[in-house]
TrEMBL record:
<dbReference type="GO" id="GO:0008643">
    <property type="term" value="P:carbohydrate transport"/>
</dbReference>
<dbReference type="InterPro" id="IPR015855">
    <property type="entry name" value="ABC_transpr_MalK-like"/>
</dbReference>
<dbReference type="InterPro" id="IPR008995">
    <property type="entry name" value="Mo/tungstate-bd_C_term_dom"/>
</dbReference>
<dbReference type="Pfam" id="PF08402">
    <property type="entry name" value="TOBE_2"/>
</dbReference>
<keyword id="KW-1003">Cell membrane</keyword>
<dbReference type="GO" id="GO:0055052">
    <property type="term" value="C:ATP-binding cassette (ABC) transporter complex, substrate-binding subunit-containing"/>
</dbReference>
<dbReference type="GO" id="GO:0016887">
    <property type="term" value="F:ATP hydrolysis activity"/>
</dbReference>
<protein>
    <submittedName>
        <fullName>Carbohydrate ABC transporter ATP-binding protein, CUT1 family (TC 3.A.1.1.-)</fullName>
    </submittedName>
</protein>
<feature type="domain" description="ABC transporter">
    <location>
        <begin position="4"/>
        <end position="234"/>
    </location>
</feature>
<comment type="similarity">
    <text>Belongs to the ABC transporter superfamily.</text>
</comment>
<dbReference type="Pfam" id="PF00005">
    <property type="entry name" value="ABC_tran"/>
</dbReference>
<dbReference type="InterPro" id="IPR047641">
    <property type="entry name" value="ABC_transpr_MalK/UgpC-like"/>
</dbReference>
<keyword id="KW-0472">Membrane</keyword>
<keyword id="KW-0067">ATP-binding</keyword>
<dbReference type="InterPro" id="IPR013611">
    <property type="entry name" value="Transp-assoc_OB_typ2"/>
</dbReference>
<keyword id="KW-0547">Nucleotide-binding</keyword>
<keyword id="KW-1278">Translocase</keyword>
Amino acid sequence: MAEIQLRNVGKRWGSFVGVDNFDLTIADKEFLVLLGPSGCGKTTTMRMIAGLEDVTEGEILIGGKVVNELEPKDRDVSMVFQSYALYPNMNVYENIRFPLRVRGIDQSTHDEKVRRASAMVELDDFLHRKPAELSGGQRQRVALARAIVREPNVFLMDEPLSNLDAKLRVSTRAQIKNLSHELAVTTIYVTHDQIEAMTLADRVVVMKGGVVQQVGSPTDIYDKPANAFVASFIGSPAMNLMDGAMSGGTFTAPNVKITGLNAPDGPLTLGYRAEDASLASDGNGQINAPIYTLELLGDATMISVRVGDALVSVKADKTYRAEIGDMVSISVPNEICHLFNANDGARIG
Ligand code: ATP
């Protein structure tokens, strides 16, 4: 049983706040992803859980026990970093076996444990190789096997895929997902890649400037972002956001007029997702503007137009063709609109 509780956890260096008032319970066997831009406090949060960084305030509990004062080695957590730090003079077998040796685990069990862990990451045929004789993806899998072999209660993974090329990242991501299903161990995974977060997580924590912005399932966060920052961080492409003004239920911005909305008069940030909108015939849409750019994506054509300072887009059929500068009309029905406070970005509808 490895439920993790963070009770109002904070980290400060002098007056600089790295992580502020982080309060969350991570369920036993849950796969939790910490997501946010560089410097938002993800790694610091993870390092506090691992015991590599002191907590300035609050408490961390693992399996119901306060661990603030426990050494990393006594917390029963296993970490995988982006730099996988394998021992170059040991072969794959010895690298995977290493945690068992340093922890004094009964030698007679080593062989079975190493072979089981290496089979899980499909490295059975590489056990005799040295790290220098492996590809980046294979090395990362050795690091994963080394984390698995200890059979910890908690996995902590800090951007484990970031050193891999795009294709390998996708296949290794799938492997981590499958592995986590098989192992059913509480996992905290740090990334700034929203696709990794969406595909791997049971729940995602979106962070900014050391502060948690939203906690929820990938669908919650995609469908109902708590604020404009989360909306702009999730989705591929990210949500289109336009600054404009509300008056008597009508939102206006350059080239935009959307009626029948429920928001108070005054400045407003309105968002919609490119895939929810469509091209309207006969100028019937709510956005009418010349095409700024047109991108062929293979499965669709992405059309972007300018609204004030912002570029907003619509996904059209893959066969759609037009020229830059041609007028288009984009249909943005009320039910696909996300409304955010123009000052603090908070969701209002
Ligand atoms: P990245 O994705 O770039 O790894 P991150 O979200 O993991 O970023 P952290 O490494 O947690 O960010 O850092 C959070 C903030 O705390 C950053 O602004 C960083 O500069 C600062 N920070 C980290 N370690 C220290 C330290 N030892 N002393 C002072 N400030 C620090």
